[in-house]
Amino acid sequence: MPLTLETLKVNPIDCTGHGVCAELLPELVSLDEWGYPIVDPRPVPPQLDREARRAVAACPALALKLMRK
User: Fold this and answer.
1) Is 36 within the bounds of a domain?
2) pTM for the whole thing?
C-alpha cells in the first residue's frame, strides 16, 4: 500500500498568530516577524506525523490543516 503524503496548510484569514504550531512543530513551522506561521511546503515526514497532527489539533483558531497530496 503506497504511503499517502500530507502537507501542512495554514489559512491566513483564520490564523490569529498564537504560535502554538511553531512551538509544537518547529521542524516544519517557523514564525514571521509578526508571529504568523511560515509552513514548510514539503510533505510531512512520516516521523513527524504525530507531532503534525498534534499541532493541527492544538491550533486555537483552527487555521492549520493537513492536506493530502
Assistant:
1) yes
2) 0.89
Instruction: Give every residue of the chain whose pLDDT is below 50, as ranges.
Output: 1
Which single residue is written with the C-alpha cell 506525523? 49
Domain count for the chain, please give it: 1
pLDDT of residue 31: 97
Neighbours of 21 (CB within 10 A): 27
Q: What is the DSSP string of the chain?
A: -PPPPEEEEE-TTT-----HHHHH-TTTEEE-TTS-EEE--SPPPGGGHHHHHHHHHH-TTS-EEEEE-
Distance (Å, whole) CA 48 – CA 19:
18
Range of the domain at 32: 6-68
Cell of 10: 495554514
